[in-house]
## 1
Amino acid sequence: MTTAGAVKAAPWRDPSARPYVEVERVTKSFGDFKAVDDVSLKIYKGEIFCLLGASGCGKTTLLRILGGFETPSSGRIFIDGEDMTGVPPYERPVNMMFQSYALFPHMTVEQNVAFGLKQDRVPKGEIAERVATMLDLVKLGSFARRKPHQLSGGQKQRVALARSLVKRPKLLLLDEPLGALDKKLREHTQFELISLQDQLGVTFVVVTHDQEEAMTLASRIGVMNQGEIVQAGTPSEIYEFPSSKFVADFVGSVNIFEGKLLEDEPEYVRIASEELGGTLYVSHGISAAPEATVWAAVRPEKVFMSTAQPEGTDNVVRGAVQDIAYLGDLSIYLVKLPTGKVVRVTQPNTSRHAEAITWDQQVYLTWDSTSPVVVTR
Amino acid sequence: MNYRRSVFIISCLAFGFAFLYIPILSMVVFSFNASKLVTVWDSANSPTLKWYSSLLHNEEILDAAWISLKVALINASGAVILGTLAGFGLARFSQFRGRFTLNAMTTAPLVMPEVITGLSLLLLFVALEQLIGWPAGRGITTMTIGHMTFSMAYVTVVVQSRLATFDTALEEAAMDLGARPLKVFFVITLPIIFPAIFSGWLLAFILSWDDLVISSFTSGPGSSTLPMVVFSKVRLGVSPEINVLATITILVVTAMIVGVSVWVARAAKAEAAAT
Amino acid sequence: MKRTSYWRRFGITGRGLVVVLPYVWLLLFFVVPFVIVLKISFSDIDLAIPPYKPLLEWVGENSLAIKVNFNNYAFLFTDSLYLNALLNSIKVAFISTLFCLAIGYPMAYGIARSKPSTRNVLLLLVILPFWTSLLLRVYAWIGLLKANGVINNVLIWLGVIHEPLSLLYTPFAMYVGIVYSYLPFMILPLYANLEKMDWQLLEAAEDLGCRPWQAFYKITVPLSRNGMLAGSMLVFIPAVGEFVIPALLGGPNALMIGRVLWDEFFSNRAWPVASAVAILLLIILVPFMMWYQSVQARESAGR
C-alpha cells in the first residue's frame, strides 16, 4: 500500500492501530514560561502531520523536542515503540530539515548530502550510489559539485531535503519548509513534497504558521496555541468542524455570531443573536448548558448574497455592501448589517459579464441550515 | 544611504591620516640617508643602501630577530589553542561555574598596563624557581609563557566574536545527521571559523614580535628579543640602522595585510558572482 | 525565547573540559602572579637573590611568624615622588584620551559614512600602523622632534623660526607620542559602533525639522556612547601605566608611574617597593577595567 493509501485508511480512527510517534504528556518550561504545555499526540506511519500555529505558540519547541535538541521538562516521546525521550539527536532515527536549510558552506552539494551517511560508516560505494539517486530524485543531479552559495533558494531547499532524506529516517521533521520561497515556487514545491513523501514512505512532521501550507500538505493538522494542541484532525475536519472560536478564526476566515440558545433539540437548535439581528437555525444538535452563550460560525463561501429577498426568517439577514475586493478568481464582499456587524462573503466570479453587485447596494444574506458550526468556547 | 560628507569631516580624515603616516614615511625616507645623523639629509651621498647592508650584517640584531621569531611562533600557536578553547566556551556556554572569572581573566589583559603584567610574571617565575626549581632562570621559556598569557586574551576576543555570529543551526544539523559533538566541532565549526582563528594567530604573532615590556621583565641573559635590542639602541638617540629595520618591517607588514585583503576581497567577489 | 544550548546535556564533564585548560592557565599565569605581587609588596627588601625577605619565617622550634611590612606603602605615601607620578600619569592619560577622542571621532565617523569600497581601504590604513611595531613608530617621533630633526629643519628652512625648538624630551613630545600610538585603539571601537548605526534615524530627524548639527548632537552622539566609552577605556587604562613613550620621548622630567615602576625595579632593585607601586596602580585601574567590561557587556547585549 502506498503512503497515501496507508493514510487514507485513517489509522487515527482505529483504536487498535499502533502510533508510530507518540508524544505522551510532554511539557517544556523555560523558567516560568511553559513553551509546551502537557501535549499528547499520536502520529501514524506515513502521515504528514502539520503543527500549525502563530509564532510563540510552541510548535517549534515541540518539533525540537522530537528531534532531540530539547529535552522535555516532563513527559515522554516514543518513536516506533521505543522510548526516545533522553536520546541525543545523533542517536535518533530522526532527521530534521532546518528553516534556514543549514547547508554546510564549506562542502559541496554532494558532500553535504553524503555527510549523514559518512557518520553511519556506510561503505563508500554505497554512499556514492545513494547520494546520486537522491540528487536525481530532487532533480539536482547536475549540481553535485556546486557549493551552497552558488545555489538559488529553491535549490538549497532541495539539497537540505535530500540531505535529510538520504538516511531513510523513520521520521522527518520540517521547520517552516516553504517559508523562504516565493508564492509560485511554494505551490509547486508543496506538491513536490507530497509526491516525494509518497514515494519514500517517510513520516513527516511539519511546523508552519501558514494555514494554506498546512491544508495542502497535511494528512492531519494539530492547531497549537500557547503551548497546547487545541484541535487535531484532518484539514476538512479542522475547517468544517472547528472545536472552538480560536480554531474557527485561525484557519481560514469566518463569521462568528454570538448568541443564546432559543431552542435546543436533538436534531436542531435555534439561536438568537443580537449581533446578527436575527436567528440562526442549525440542523444538528449540540451539547451545551441551557443558558450558555454559544457562537455560530459561518464560513464566507457558504453565505449566499442576492438582491431578492429569500424565504424564511431563520438564517436570513439584510445589509449594505461596504467593501469589495476583487481577487480575480473570487470576490470578497464586506456587508454591513443594521446591527453594525460586518459579514464577510466570498463569491466565485463564475461569469465574466455577471451582473455585478456594487458598493452601498442593499443585499440579502442567507445560508443553509447545515452551514453554521456551533462552538461553546 | 546618503554618502555625503562635510568638508570638516574630510579635512579631519586628511589631517588624521597625515598625522598617522608622516612619521612612518619620514622613517622610510631617511633610511636611505647616508648621514649618520639620520635626519640631516646628506645630499652628496644619498640616497644609499649602505645602512641596509650594515643592518643585515649586524649580528646582535640578527640574533635578536631569530629569538623573537622563535618566541612569536610558539606563542602564536599556543595562544591560538588556548584562546579558541576559551572563546568557544564563553560564546557557547552561557552558564558555567567560573564563567565570570574566565571572562574577566580574558578581558583584563587587553587593557592592563604591561608593566604590571610583566612585573607580576617575573615575580611568579622567581617564586616558582624558589619553590620547585622550575623555571631555572629566565629565558625563552618564561618569555613565551608570558607572551602566551596576554596573547590568548586577544585570540579569545576574536574567536568569541566570530562565534557569536555563527549559525548554530549548522552544528545542530550536523548532530542531527549523526555526528557527535566533538566531531561537529572539528568537521563543521572549526573549518568555518578558520579565517577568524588565522587572524587570531597573526595577531598573537605580531603582538609577541613587537612586545618590549613583558619581554624585558621575563627574559634572561642571552635571550634578548629584537624590540629589546632596538630599545637599548634607541634610548641613546637615532640610529640609521633602526630606520632600515623600520622600513623593512613596514614593507613586510604592508605586503602581508594588502595581500590578505586582496585575497579576501577576491574570494568574496567570486562568491557573490557565483550566487 | 532563548534556545537551551544542546551542550547543556553534556553536564559538567564535556563543557568543563573545554574551558578548563585556558582557565587553569590564566589562573596560574595571570591571577596568581598578582597575589605574589601583593605578598611581596608587604615584605622587606633584602640584599640577596631574590631581593626580598620571605613573608613567613620560622621563629624558634614551633612557631611561624608572618611579617607584614607596611613600610613600602607608607614609603609611597610619604615620598611625594610616587603620588606625583601617579597623579601625573592619570592627568596625562586623561588628556591624551580627550585628544584621541577629538581626532578619532571625526575619523571614525568619516570612515563609517564612506562608500563600502573606500571604507575598506580607509580601515586598512588605520590598521596598518597598529600592526607596525609601537617601538618603531615612537622612534619615528624622535627623528621628527629632535633638535636637528625633521620638524625643526623644515621650520628653519621655511624661515618660521631661527633656532631649533626644544620639542623632544618634553611633556609635549610625550603627549604627541601617546596620542599617536593609541589613536587606532580609539578609532576602531568607535567605528565598530558607528557602523552599526541606522543612518535613517538622522534622515528622519532632519525630515522632522532638525538641523544637521542638532541631529548629530541629539542622535548620533548618544547612540555612539558605548563606542566612545570603549575607545576611551582602551586608551586611558593602558596609558596610565605607559612606560615606553615617556622613556623615549618624555625626558627626565616626564614623571609617569610606569617609568617609576620600571626604574624602581631595574635600577634600584627595590622589588617590594615596585610591587607596592604596582598594587596601588592596580587598585586605581580596576574600577575602570570593570567599567570597560560592563560597557562591552551592554554593547553585546544590544546586538
## 2
Amino acid sequence: MGEAITVSALNLYIKQMMDGDTVLSSVLVRGEISNYKVYPSGHHYFSLKDAEGNIRCVMFRREAVGLRFRPEQGMKVIAEGRVTVFPRDGQYQLYCNRMIPDGIGDLHLAFEQCKAKLEREGLFDPRHKKPLPAYPEKIALVTSPAGAAVRDMIRILGARYPLCQVLVVPVRVQGAEAPSEIAGAIDAINRNRAADLIITGRGGGSLEDLWAFNEELVARAIHRSEIPVISAVGHEPDVTIADYVADLRAATPSNAAELAVPDSEDLRRRLRHLETRMAAGLTRDLREGRRVLDRAKASPWLRAPLPVIQESRQLLDYRQDQLVHVVEKLLLRERTRLGKQAAALDALSPLKVLGRGYAIVRKAEGEIVLSTRQVDVEEALTVRLNEGELICRVERKEP
Amino acid sequence: MAEKKMTFEASIRRLEEIVGTLERGDRSLEDALALFEEGTKLMKQCSTLLDKAEQKVLKVTQQADGTLKESEFYPPEGE
C-alpha cells in the first residue's frame, strides 16, 4: 500500500481534474426535474434524471432570477452549466446557469397515456365501484411496513374501531419492484379471501416516489379485486391512476383509515338511541295492554253479570213477539192476495157463461161443435146446459 | 348460545330490526316482551364488544404456494 492522503486532498484532486475538463466546464444536459426546492437564500436545488440516472443540480440566485418559467417536479428541461465537485460532500453536481423547458416530462406523458387507455377500457367507470363494508372485520393494509403511513393507519383504525382486525401486507411502495409487489399482494388477499377491505397506499412524495401507483399493473389489480379497495396515496392533491380505479379515494393514509371504519363513539351513541326507541316501543305496548285490561275489567259482564242476562232475556222476549207479529201480518197479506186471484180465475170460467143461457154442443167423442159441417143428419150430440145435459138427434142442417 | 357468535354487524342489524318492529307495535305483547329481551341482550353484547375490543394487528406474508402466513406485526417506531 502506498502513501495515504486525506479525504479533502482527494476531493480537491478530483475537483481539479474535473475543472480542467473542457466538456464538463460547459455542458447541456437533457433531463427531468425532481425534488425541486427553492431555499430562502434564493438558490434553487434539484435533480435532473432520466430512466437510468440522476444528477444533483444547483442554480444560484443570480442565475435563477433569469428563469423564464417555473421549474416543477417532473418537468423535462435542458440545463446548461458546468459540472464540478462540492468538496465538503464529495458530491459532484451541475452548477446550472441556464435552463429551458424541453417539452413535457416523460412521466407526465406516461401518466396521461396510461390514464387515457384505462379510461377508454372503462376501468374508472362508476358502475365498477363496490360499496365498502359498513362494519369491516378484517382490513388489509397493502403498504410499506415501515414509515408513518402504516403507523398512522393502525393508530386511527384502533382508535375508531378496534373490533376490526388489521392485516399488514408488507410491500415496497417505490422502485422497480413496487408495482408487481402491490399487485401481487392485492391478488393474494383476494385469492385467500383474507380481508373484507383493502387499503393500499403510501405517504406523500414526489411524482417518482408515487409512481408505482400510476402503473397499469397496480391499476389492473385494483380493478380485478373483488374485495373493495381504498387508495390512499400521498398528501398532495395529485391524483394517481390507482385513485381513479379504486372503489374509494382517500386523500391520505390517515384519511383512508377514517373512511374505512365507523367510529366507536358514534356507534355507542347509536346504541343508546336504539335503546331509547326500543324502550319507548315496549312502554307503549304495555300501556296499550294495560288499557285493554282496564276496559275489560270495567265491563258489566265481569262486574255484575245477572242484570245483563236479565236484560238480554227481556230483549229476546220482545224480539220473539216482534217476530210472531210480523209472520202473522205476512200470512194475512198472502191470504188476501190468494182470494183476489181466485175471483179473477172464477170470472174466466166457461161454466159462468152457461149461467147466462149459452150451451156447449159436443159430438159423442167429445169434440166441440162449432159448424154444421162437423155433424151429419141423424147424429147424436150432447148439449151441456148450465144445469145438466141433453142428448139430441140432428133432424136437418141449415147452412 | 348461538347469539354469542354473532358479529357486531349482525347484532346491530338485528337490533335495528327489533327496534323497528317494536316501534310499529303490531305484535302481541308476548312477542314484544320477547323481542325486548332479545334486544336488551344484543345491546349489551354490542356495547361489550365495543368496550372490550382490543385492536389485533398481524403481518401477512405470501408463501411460495400462494397461501398467506400470519405473524406478529411490530409497528415502526415513530415520533
## 3
Amino acid sequence: MAINIKVNGAMHSVPAEPDTPLLYVLRNDLGLNGAKFGCGLAQCGACTVLVDGKPARSCVTPIDTLGQSEITTVEGLGTLERPHALQAAFMAEQAAQCGYCIAGIIMAAKALLDRNPQPSAAEVRQALADNLCRCGTHNRIVRAVLRAAQNGGRI
Amino acid sequence: MNAISRRDVVAGLGGITLAFTLAPRHTFAQQPATQQPRLPGSLDNNRLLDAWIRIGTDGNATVCTGKVELGQGIVTALAQIAAEELDLPLERVQMISGDTERTPNEGVTAGSQSIENSGTALRLAGAQVRAILLELAAKRLGVDVAALKVADGVIAAPDGRKLGYGELAAAADLHREATAQARTKPASAHRIVGKSIARRDIPAKVMGGAAFVQDLRLPGMLHGRVVRPPGYGAKLEGFDEARIKAVRGGTLVGWIAEREMLQGRIARPLGDGAKAQGFDEARLKAMLPGVVAVVRDGSFLGVIAEREEHAIKASLVLAESARWTAGPRLPEEARIYDHLLALPTEDKVVNEKEAALPGGVKVLEATYRKPYMAHAAIGPSCAIAQLTDGKMTVWTHSQGVFPLRGNLAMALKMRPENIRCIHAEGSGCYGHNAADDVALDAALLARAAGGRPVRVQWMRADEFLWEPFGAAMVMKARAALSPDGRIADWNYDVWSNTHSTRPSEPGGVNLLASWYLAEPQRPSPPRMQPQPNGGGDRNAVPLYDFPRQRITNHLIREMPLRVSALRTLGAYANVFAMESFLDELALLANADPVAFRLAHMKDARARAVIEAVAKKAGWKPGTRGDGSKGRGIGFAKYKNLATYVAVIADVEVDRASGRIAVPRIYAAVDAGQIINPDGLENQIEGGIVQSMSWTLKEEVKFDSSEISSRDWATYPILTMPEAPAVEIELIDRPNERSLGAGEASQGPAVAAIANAFAAATGKRLRDLPLTPARVKAALQG
C-alpha cells in the first residue's frame, strides 16, 4: 500500500496505511524532524505543520484526508544559510530553552504572519494560545514572532 | 548577541552524530581519590587532564563534560569557560557531553551545580593545558614562557616566530594528573566568559535538524511501545482472546486517543456472551499486524514493530486484552495531606539556634500545603537501545548517564562495562522524569530485536501516569514577634516524601520496568538528604537572621504516589511557606514587607537583590491593595548557597471568576560571575514563568482508583496569553565565583505571587495552587 503526499514542494510515495497520522509519515518515512510527537491528541501543538497554508495538527491528520494538499514543515521554510525570517528571529532572540515546542510554534506563527503580517503582541499570544511551552520561554517566543514580522515574515 | 557561525552549528550537531559513529578513544576509569589532595569541582573524582580536554593536531580542542544539555544552555556556557582559559576561539572547541565511554563521570546534571562543578573543572583544566602548551612552545622557541603571547590558539615569541596549538599537540602529554595549580584568567582578561554567546543547540531546533534523542534514526531501527499496568503494583495475569477478536474499525487517530484513555485503567468489561480465556503469546503476536515481537517479562509487557504506528496500535490491542490483578488503592486526593501526615516519619532537627525569648511576644502560626506536581515536558520521554555482540548501547536523555548505566546493569543482569549510555537531548526536563525509565524499556525490547535498534517513546498518558511526581508537602510555621516588631523565635516543620528516587540513589534499582520483571528489582530505600542541599527541607533554613530558630524535617518514607526530583525539590514549597509567613508577620508587626525583610537580613548580597528589585518595580512602602490589584515580594538564595533572587509580582484578581492574572513580574539576580548573561536571563525568566504555572494551575489529580491527570486537558499549564511581562536585572559580580542559577527563581516567584494576592485582597491563600475555586472561597470567607 502506498499513498502520495506533497511535502515541502515535493511528491512522496509512502508505504503507509491510509489512516496513518501524518506525523509518523513525516518523521519516519520522510525523515523530517520538525513536527514532534507531544500528545497525539491535538492539545499541545508540537506537531503543527501547514496544510495548504493553514496550521494543522499532524498527530490527528490521517494521510488519506490530504489529497493534493501542500504540506509545509519547518524544514520547508529555510536553511541554515538562508533561514526564514521566523527561524532567523528565533535564533536572534534565543527563543528556546529545551526547544521541543519550537518547530510547531514557528509553523503556527507562519500561518499567523501569512494572514496578518503586522500582528500586535496580543494577537501573537492569542494565535499561539494552543501551542504549549513548558520551559517558560513564552515572552521570547512572542518577541521572536514580532521581530520576524518587522523583518517581513512572509518571505 | 553574537552571530551564529556555520561551524558553531556543525559543532552543536556533532554531539549527536559523533556519538554513534566514533569508536571511543579512551575509557576513563575513575581513580580512587584516597591520599590525593582534594581538587576543586568535578576535577576531584576525574583527575586526568585528558579526561576533560584534548588538543588535536588541527589545533582544535575537544572538551568533555559529564554534564548534559537540558535546554538550560549548559554546553554553550561550559564551552565558553574552556575556550576562555584555552585562549581558543569558541568555534574551535568541540563539546562532548554525557557518554559513559568518553566523558568524565559527573553524576547527575541537577541541583543547579553544573557551572560550579563542571565549569570549575574545565576552567582549571583549560588553564593547565594552556600552561603545558606554553611551556612546550617556550622550549622549542628557546624563549622564556613569560615572553610568549597567546591569541586564538597561536603562541607568538617576541621576535615574531609562531607556533600553533596543533603543532604542539603531539608532544603535549595531557594524560597526566590535573593539578589545579595553573593560574586562571582574572575576570578583567575575559573575552568570551561574560558574553551573551548564542547557544549551540538552538539552530538545529529551529531548522528541524536532529536536535533530540527523539530525532535519532539508526539503520534498521524498530519502534517499541510498552503496555503499563492499570495502576501501581498491578500484576499481569494473561490475555483475553475475546478482546482481540472484538477489535477493530475506526482510524489510527481514534485508536491513539483510545489508547490514551485506556492506559492506567482496567479494560472495559467484556460484552454479554464474550468469554475471557487464556491466550497463547505466539498466537497473540501472529494476530497483530506489522509486529516483530511481543515481549513479556513478568508484568512487563511491550511490543516491537517495523512502523511506529503499528507499535502503537498493537499496544492498544495488548492493553485491551491484558488481564491484570489490581494493585493497592491510592489515597483519596481530598484527604491526601491528612493521609501523609498520619504516616510514620523520620524526623531530624536540621538547624537550631538558641536565644532567650523576650517577654510580651505575639505568636503566629500557619500551615501551608503544596500538591503533587508533574514534570510534564512537552515531549514524552524517549530512548533508543541496541544490543549487539553482548553490548547494549542506549541513547538517552537521562540527567545522569553513569548512574543510569549502573541501574541498567542490575536490571538487565549485565556488567556495566558492557553497557554504554550516550546522552542526546530530550524535551524538558525539570528534574527526574521518565527519561531513565524509558531507557530500560528500550533495552528490554532491544533484547528481542535481533541486534536492531529499538526506539521507544512514551505516549502522553504514559508520561503523566507513570512519571515520578514532585512530592506533596505540608509546612507548618510558628513564630514569635517581639514588642519592637522583630522576629524573636522561628519554628518551622516540613513533612514530605523524598525528593530523589533517582538511579543514583544507593541500595536498589530505580527504573520503573525493573519492578515488574519476572525477577523484580526493589527500589532504593528513601533517605534523608543532608543539608545544606537538603531534599524536602531544601531552603527550609532561613537565610534571615533570627535570634532563635528550630527547623525540623519530617521524611515520610511511604510513597502512595511515585515521587522524585522536580526542579528545586522542596525549595519551591519552602520558599512559598517561609516568605508567605514573613509577610503575615510583617502585617502583624505593621511593617512594610520589603523593610521587614531588610530588617532581618545581614547578608549584603541578599539585601542588594531585595533593594534592587524594589527599586526596579518602584515599590512604595505602605501601598494597600484595592481588593483586586496588589503586589508582593519573595526572596531566596537557592539552597542558601547558590544564586540570590528577589522577585516582585503584580497581580490582578478577578473577584467574579476567581482568576488571578499576573501582568508583570520583576526580578533582581546575583549569580556571582555571570558566564552568559542571556543564558542566565533565559533560565531566570523561564523559572519565573514555570513557577507561575505551578502556582496558579498545577496539581496532579487522582482518586482511590487512578491518577486522573493524564493529558493537557486534565493537567493544564500556563499558556501564551497568560504569561506575565518579565523584567530582570542581573547584578554581575565578576570577581565572585559563579553560582548555580537554573532553579533559583521558582521559589521567589511563587512567594511574590502569593504575597501579591494577599496584598490585593487582604486574604491569605496557604494551599497551592491558587485556583479560581480557592480564590473565590477565600474572598467569600
## 4
Amino acid sequence: MTGKILTGPALNRRFFLKAGLAGACSLAAHPLMTTVTFAASNGGRPLGDHRLIVMILRGGMDGLDVVRPYGDPMLARYRPQITKGDKGSELDGFFWLHPALADLMPLYAKGELGFVHAASTPYRDKRSHFDGQDMLEAGTGSDVPLAAVRDGWLNRMLQSIPGLVSDTAYSVGAAEMPVLMGEAPFSTWAPDQSLDLSAAARVLLDQVYAEDPLFHASAAQAMEMSAHLQMAEDEGKKPEGPFADDLALADFTAARLNEDTRIAAFSMTGWDTHRGQNAAIAKPLSHLAQVILRLREGLGANWGKTLLVAMTEFGRTARENGTAGTDHGTGGAMVLAGGALNGGRVFGTWPGLDEAALFERRDLMPTTDVRAWAGHALRGLYGLDKGLIEKSIFPGLILPPDPGLLL
Amino acid sequence: MELSAEILAIRFGYGLPQPEGSLSTVPEILAALAGPDPAQKQYPLPPSTHFATLSDAYVREKKIAKSGGNNKEAETASRQAMSGLLDLAQRSTFARTIDSPQPFRERLVAFFTDHFTTRQKGILDHYLTFSLVDEAIRPNIGGTFADLVTAVTLHPSMLSYLDQKVSTGPNSTLGKKQGKGLNENLARELMELHTLGVDGGYSQDDVRQLAELLTGLTISPTLTTEFEKRRVEPGAETVMGKTYDGDNMKAIQKVLRDLALHPRTAQHIAGKLAVHFLSDTPDASAVEAIRAAFEATGGSVPALAQALLTHPAAAKGLGAKLRQPFDFLVAASHALGISGGTVMAMKLVDFKRNYLFALDKMGQKLKFAPGPDGWPEEAEAWVTPPRLAARIDWSMQMPQRLANPLPDPVNLARVTLGTRATKTLTTAASRAESLAVGVGIVLSSPEFNRR
C-alpha cells in the first residue's frame, strides 16, 4: 500500500477491511479503491476554510408562522385558528419563534441562529411552486426569461473559482438540485441510496469496470460513500427513529464539510401547508431543527466557520384559508444558522400587516430580495467581488449595503 | 449496408432479446413507420378531454369541500379516478415500450417526446404530459417534422407548460382592459429548442414578434386548444424576415410550418438525431446525410430515419452512448423476460418500487425532465455515484423479485449483448457467488449500460 492510503481518512482504511482486501492486494490491482474524493483530498482548498450550506425549502414555507409577528395585532385577526395555540419562544418582543423550533433557541441566544423576514425572489403574481423554485435556484430576476437560464446561481458562483475540484461542492440527496446544476463540477450522493454488496461482488464489479473510466470512478466513489454510511451503522451511529433520514443527511453533509467540501446543497420538503397548518408545519420545522442541531454537532469546531442559508420559493397568504391552512403568497422568511453568523436577530425590513401594506392586499409585502442575502453570504464568506455577484451570479441584482450577516 | 440484428436492437431499439414479432430489416422498419402504431393500440389511453372531465369534477368537489360541504366520498372518488388514470398512463408508458414489435419506432417517439419536453406543475395535471405523446407525437411519427411541430405547439400540454395560455397582446381587448401582457416563453423555446436551435440566427426581436403572432392561442377551461380573439395583438408580425398577416390560427400554422422547414431547423434536428442515436460527437457526414434528407423531403421523419439507419456510421462505434434510466429498465425487462402485460398487472406497490421509484433514483423521474431542453444526452450526467449506485442496486436486488427462476448469468450476457459480451464479463459473471449477483454483474456492466 502507498503512504497516501495510510494517511487517508479512517473510512477508507475501513473500506478495505470491509472488502476483505487489506493486506492481500495492492492498491494498483484494485483501482476501484483509488477514489475520486481520495485523489482530491490532497488537492487545494480553493474556497479556504468557510463552509456554506444552502437548503432549499420546497413547497413555500410560511414565514409568518415560523417567525411570528405577534407584536402586530393583525396577525391574530388574520389567523384566528393558526394563532390560538402555543405562542412559541419570544425572540425580541415583536417576533416569536414557532414552538417546533424551540430546540434552536439556545443557538439564537448565542447568535448562531437568525432569520430574514419579508424577503422573496423577484417572482410575482403567479405563485407556482415550479416557477418559483426555478427562479429561486436560477437566481435571476424577472427581466431574464427563466427558460433562458440553464444553470443555478451556486454553480455560477463555482464557475468563478479557480482550482475548483469536484468535491468542493456537494449535492446531497436523491432530488436534483438545480441551484447547483451547470458547467462547474460538483459531487453528488444520496445518503439513503444503499449499495449493499458483498466483498466478492465488489471484486467482480471492479473487474468489469476496469476498462471503463467513467463507470469505474463513479462506482469507486459510490462504494466509498456507501462504506462510510455502513461504518456509521456498524459503530451504532446509524441514526434511528422518526428523524433518521434527516440525521443521516446531516451526518453525511457534516462529514463532507469536515474534509474538502466547502459548499453543500440539499432540499427539504413538506412546506405546502394548505390545510391544518398547525400540525402540517410542525413536522417539517421539527425536521429542520434536527438537521441544524445535528450539523452543528457533526461539524464540531468547523461550525464556527459555517453559514447555513435556508430559502423557500415564496411565503404564504397573510390570512388563513377556510381549512386552517394558508395558500401560496409572496414575502417569506429565510432561516440562517452557523457559527459564522452574526445572528440572534431578525434581519430585514418589516413592512407591517395592515391590509394596505400587504402585497396585493393579500401576502406579506417583500421588502428585500432573497438574492441580496445570498449575495452577501457569498461575499462575506469568500470575499467575492461585488461586480461578479451582480453580473454573473445574480444577474441584474443590485447588492445593497452590507447588512452585517457575518461575524 | 444492412445493419446486424444486434446493432438494430442495441443501438436503435431497447436491447436484446427483442419482443416477439419484431421487424428485423431496415426497409421493413422504415416502411412500418407510416403504418399503424401497434404499441398505442395494444395499450390505449383515454384522451386528454376525458382527463379534463375528471379534473373538472375534482375541482368542483374540492370547492364544495372547501366551503364546508359534506362531500368527502365524492371528493375521494374523484381524486382516485384521477390518480388511477395517472397510474394507467405510467404503466402503459413502460408496457408499450417493452412490448412493441417496432422498438425503433418507440425510440423515435421517445426522441421527439424529449425534443418537445413538457412537464405539468400540479401532480394531477400530469396526465396531459402523457396525452401529448398520444395526441401529437405518435400520430405524426410517419409524417413530417412540421406536422410534429404543429401538433405539439397546439397541444394543451405545451400551451400550459410554456405559459402560452396566459400570454395576451398588450393592445388586445383583454390586454387593454386588464393590463395584461405577453409571455414570450413558448415563442423563445419554439425557436431555440424546437426548431432553429440556439444559434439559429433569430434575434430577440424575432422572439417578440413570434410571441405577438402567437397571441390568441390558449387553452379553454375544458383543456382544449382554442383561439381567443380578445387576446390577439392586432396587426401583422415579421418573424425571420417574413411577414404574417391575419390575426387567426392560419397565420400561426403558417409560421410554425415555416420555422419547421427552415434550413437552420434541418441542421439542428439532424445534429440532435445523430447525437442521440450515434455519439455525443457524431460523424459529420452522418449529420450532413440526415440534414440533406430533411431538405430533400421537407422534413419527412421516415426519410430522416432512413438517412440515419443507412449511413455507414450507424454500424460503427457501438457503445458510444449510454442507456438512459428508462431505457435501462426496459432493456432489463427484456433481459429478464418481463412483458408489458406483467407490468400492467403488477401490484401498485411493486410497480412503484420496481419501476417508478427506481427511475427516480437513477435520476430520470418519469415525464419530469428538469427543463424544456429535456434530459441530458451525455453519459456523465447519468453515471454519477448515486445514480450508478441505483443501477447497481436495482441490478442486484430486483431481478430476483421479477424473474423466477433467474437466468444463467453467462447465458444472459450472451443473449443480451451478443458479440459485445466480453471474456472479462462472462468470466466475472460465472464466478459470482450466487445467481442473483451474477445477473447483477451483467446488468450493471458497462456493456449492458452502453449502446
